[in-house]
From TrEMBL:
Keywords from the UniProt entry: ATP-binding, Chaperone, Nucleotide-binding
Gene3D superfamilies registered for this protein in UniProt: 3.30.230.80, 3.40.50.11260, Heat shock protein 90, C-terminal domain, Histidine kinase-like ATPase, C-terminal domain
Top-level taxon of the source organism: Bacteria
InterPro entries on file: HATPase_C_sf (IPR036890), HATPase_dom (IPR003594), Heat_shock_protein_90_CS (IPR019805), HSP90_C (IPR037196), Hsp90_fam (IPR001404), Hsp90_N (IPR020575), Ribosomal_Su5_D2-typ_SF (IPR020568)
Taxonomic lineage: Bacteria, Pseudomonadati, Bacteroidota, Cytophagia, Cytophagales
Gene that this sequence comes from: htpG
Domain Histidine kinase/HSP90-like ATPase: start-end pairs: 25-165
UniProt xrefs under NCBIfam families: PRK05218.1
Residues forming coiled coils: none
The protein's name: Molecular chaperone HtpG
Family recorded in the similarity comment: Belongs to the heat shock protein 90 family.
Organism expressing this protein natively: Pontibacter ruber
Amino acid sequence: MEERGNISIHTENIFPIIKKFLYSDHEIFLRELVSNAVDATQKIKRLSSIGEYKGELGDLKVVVKVDKDARTITISDRGIGMTAEEIKKYINQIAFSGAAEFVERYKEAGEQNQIIGQFGLGFYSAFMVADRVEIVTKSYKEDTVPAHWTCDGSTEFAIVDARKEERGTNVILNVASDSEEFLEKERIRTILNKYCKFLPVEVEFEGEVINNPNPIWTKQPSELTEEDYKKFYNELYPFSEAPLFWIHLNVDYPFNLTGILYFPKIKNDFELQRNKIQLYSRQVFITDEVKDVVPEFLMLLHGVIDSPDIPLNVSRSFLQADSSVKKINTYITKKVADKLTEIFKKDRATFENNWDDINVFVKYGMLSDEKFYEKAKDFVLLQNTEGKYYTLEEYKNLTQANQTDKNGQLTLLYTTDVDKQHAFVEAAHNRGYDVLKLDTLIDSHFIGMLEQKLEKTTLKRVDSDTIDKLIEKDELKESVLSDTEKEDLKKIYEQAINNQNMHVQVEPLSPDDAPVVITLPEFMRRMKDMSRTGGGGMMFMGNMPDTYNVAINANHSINQRILKAKDDNKERIARQAFDLALLSQNMLSGSALTAFVKRSVDLIDKE
């Protein structure tokens, strides 16, 4: 036996789902109803512009009113209105969007993207807060009778003739007992400020227009001044410090996208959490969670993105990832790179002044996006310990002659803390070497990327080895000590230090270098840095004990003195020299520091 038919969906079953679960946040009802009112207003303006409506437009404001005593919220417009038949078509047939039909009918007239609605479900969000909803409406069409529609949230409704003089629609919500918070005027004002702040039609509440219908992202950059951009930033984020600069987005192919992205001065984590990029669709606020639209490395930017082409879920509350989102993401990346290139070329001084605030964006972008790297490699800056800035090419030219080792490898030296590593920086400067400052959280990853990208180039932290080993030359350093004396000196230090994580080696350094140099090998230090910043596969390194190299300067007079000292004094002097090296690395504390101070006093007293 075979039987075919249609699955029956009963509205009495689906209506509670729409009413209670379609929208994750009940306050969305006001956004949807005000957006519908704006749609109706945009439609009458359109019909007037093409000559299909010849009457006076009059005041086109959308008005929101709260009557706490009557327990009602009313949203009124002077848009196209509806007839009783249109109510049956657009309201009683769930998910039949009047906006979609209007756009299709009048798309030849242009500017159809100004119509906001797309699913035809927004009206039913009213029932999340109301136990009865009324519509009183009069169509713009001549000789039509005003209509009054009423529904209590069930599948039953009533339509009767109404008395209404003016064209337009009033939606009246009789607020339910579990939603009384929405009868508080400040609650309504907060929702309007959140979702309706930039709607394209004036919205009035409590006698005051609460929105800016013509935000600057809807205008051409040529129409705007620097002051306009700063004023708008303050409108978005009151009390925030002025931004460094901004990027105006304006594209109509292969997708529609407008907006303004600001580069902020980063002061603290609170501001980063509070001032997020806001996503709009036809000037209706959607969300400030834009991780799919905006590349991750630009999530610290502030501003607005508006696109009718960003796919939203049916409640217009969340994004739906698809190919157009990826295209928008790629476009934003390109625009940011182009803007930074433009600023760098036109005003390098300003670019350098802003570098401390933008270098995290740039370095993160280079790490995460190959196309961004290709553009950014020409404007990313390296700062040395003297505060001078260089591009990658400029710095290569500066250091290549003096910092290329015997194998033809260019070695770039850097410090992560100028004060703590000052002795090593000074030793490098004494050799005529330049030292970079790479002291941000992202720099451990940035260093690894540079080594992958730059040909025959390595980076070494200035305290990761003795200066002669950091950049090995063909020069042969002679030791004033014999092999036997070097072995004796090594044993004295090993006994004085008594620490298996300190690997002692006697080396022929310059007499002007320190008597003892303690270094954490570059590989070990870099792995630990990456483990602290969440480097993949390196977490175990954070639990391993630090293993240091201890270079004993065979050509320093103190070490020659140790060999000549009495047996009971050799280790004491060696320990003092070792503790001095620890002190220079900020590695001496607790009882070891106390012992060092006492020993120092004793040695001075005996002199």
